[in-house]
Design brief:
alpha+beta; three-stranded antiparallel sheet; Arc Repressor Mutant, subunit A; 93 residues; 3 strands
Length: 93
């Protein structure tokens, strides 16, 4: 005859104890950066994400503008010629 070995069951941890603090995605970090009143330059976004310039521009064009429908505006400063990008509120007529 086989003898049954007792199995100990550990109590489940609460939901707050199981999930560690989730880090923000690079896309959400970019959105936060672009929501600043002053906006952000390509170089700042490259440092934040570790991406190359063409990848940052692609995310702005594809994911932020087209997929998420955000209103991303770029302006060039007259004095230094640096282009800045920022997210503005969409004005409805």
């Amino acid at each position: 005859m086989k003898t049954k070995i007792p199995v100990t069951v550990k109590p489940k941890k609460s939901a707050t104890a199981q999930s560690p603090v989730k880090q923000q995605s690079k896309q959400s970090q970019l959105i936060e950066l672009l929501k600043k009143k002053t906006g952000s330059t390509i170089e700042e976004m490259m440092v934040l994400t570790g991406w190359q310039a063409h990848t940052v521009r692609g995310i702005i064009s594809g994911a932020l503008k087209k997929r998420l429908g955000l209103n991303v505006v770029s302006t060039v400063s007259g004095s230094n010629g640096i282009r800045t990008y920022r997210i503005t509120e969409v004005k409805t007529s």
